[in-house]
Predict the structure of Magnesium chelatase-related protein.
Amino acid sequence: MKIIKSASLDTIDAICIDVESTFTKGLPNFTIVGMISTSISESRDRVKSALLINGFKFPPLKITINLSPSEISKKGTHFDLAIALQIAFFDTNKIDFSDYYFFGELALDGNIKDTSLIFPLVLSLSKKGQINKVVVCEESAKKLVNIPNLEIYKIKNLNDAIEFVKIEDKEKYLYEKKDIKYKTLQIEDEKYFYDTNYLEDFKDVIGQDMAKFAAMISAAGNHNLIMEGSPGCGKSMISKRLRYIMPPMSLEEILEKAKLQALDFKEVDFIPLRAFRSPHHSSTKSSIFGGGSSNARMGEIALSNNGILFFDELPHFPKSVLEALREPLEDNKILISRVNNKILYETKFIFIAAMNPCPCGNLLSSVKECRCNELEIQRYKNRLSEPFLDRIDLYLVMNDSFNDTKNRVTSKELHENVIKAFTKQKNRGQKELNGKLADEDIKKYCILDEESQIIMEKARFNYQLSFRSINKVLKVARTIADLNDNEIITKNDILQSLNFRRR
């Protein structure tokens, strides 16, 4: 019995699937079994049409195609190619398919198409070391070309696929590898990529020097940031420009971003620009955290992994959403449990939020009068709990003064500073940036001089800082020290870090 390899997604990980077939005497029939979805069931008509149009005789036998293992639910139209090859070579067992994986949807005329699942499938198999050679169409090959240690063979249609299987010299179908053409940063053995096209530039933000400094700290160390200020003072402008000054991305992070784009049914790109997700405050809890009764779907926090999750009008988000954010902000992962499956998502995003100081927004305004009473303001503030705020690294109160029009810092200048700080962190041997350091790494990398230790002890007593708050202060101080090119944390670094704590 011939076996042709393909794969199916189990939530976000790929599982190898063996496409098997039997051809027995009996009334002509064509069935596909193995816990298949409607999209696979419909492939019978696509495969039959493609074979007949291209001159192949459909065997007058009882054809049974099995997708093994049968207990796993399978979906996707990419099984078409493997199923068609099983039927095209039904009368021979001499051909060995074992070295190759086949993916592709068949058009009715036999042309092979790309599908949204092929890239995440191949990437997942490659990370597990289960795939070396893959046969796909040209559109799929363009996406897969950036995956390392992978031989890609490009075919156009069913006739090409059949010829590829028959011939011994398969080199003419080999797809040429191409490098990612962006600026690179080499740190030891790892290569990092970054883009210098600043489509939204910080030079458009008038004034707000402290907010720009906070944004640079946030980007350089992956720190969570909340900005509080009057409407129109620049909170959203700064948040949307933050992604352009984020640290360079490794090839693994670029591929992971592309995988999430494919799973979100978006066009895949390989630009070293981190994800930016901005759900509306009326979004449901399931849309933000992921869910679904049978198949768990990814939410906004999973799709923003290695990027930015931005909440505008923060207090207007439901209390249940804000409280549920505490675990992914602290642990950098979230477990979605359902009756049929459980899935663990990584959530290493920067959480950025913008909020008004009161319901009417004018409490901090220098030109408008606040219309809210004390009870309304207190209720508005109480929407954010202390445990939630304790997970925020940088808390900034912005004014609405636009007098300072001279200091127009650009995104390019901020990005260069971020890259310098990023390089220092990686050269220290840090696997994670400062904002995501584990407790044991804080002791190793966040070293204070004598003056800083005295100030930290006084701050702990005067501000009644929790253990988590102390760690947040140390992490921010470490990033500020990196931006100031200091090997250890100095008095100025720790004072600036304490200045960004919420009081």
In short: The chain has three domains: 3-173, 187-420, 437-503. Residues 183 and 191 are 10 Å apart (CA to CA). Residues 411-427 form the longest helix (17 residues). The mean pLDDT is 92.
